[in-house]
Amino acid sequence: MAIIHPLRLPSLRAVFGGLPARPPAIALAALLNLHLLPLLDVETRERLERRRYVIDVTDVGIAIGLTLTAGRFAASPAGGEADLRIAAGSRDFLRLAAREIDADTLFFARRLTMQGDTELGLIVRNAIDAVDFDATRDGRIVQSAVRRVAQFVSLLEKRFGGEPRAGD
Question: What is 12-131's CATH topology?
Fold first, then answer.
């Protein structure tokens, strides 16, 4: 009798790891400019200005570099020294964006790490936490899309077993 093995998805790193980081960085900068930047007060914008940020999606193997210059977020090289580097798995970033979990919970569970300027990290966290996505139509659309993607990922995990694998 043949044993049927469950279908196993390839690792996220195998699928996305070789792709260039610039397109996702440009897309993220555009989303931040449309949906986060207009909601930030002047003082917060000034404190975020001229700093380098790197978002390291560990299970995908991609690092996204961003800067806020002249009042706009823009893609920047992810390599080298960053003022603030935030690292987590794609599922955890997705759950953060969907507001299913908060950054402190992930941080204390050692699923999210932060390197660099700790005060800047707190400013970023507080700014994102203060955003009311339900306040605007566009915000509701983005939040709804993120939640649907999070639900889809959760469904895949239940169907194919476990969390996305970190590498292969």
Answer: Nonspecific Lipid-transfer Protein; Chain A (3.30.1050)
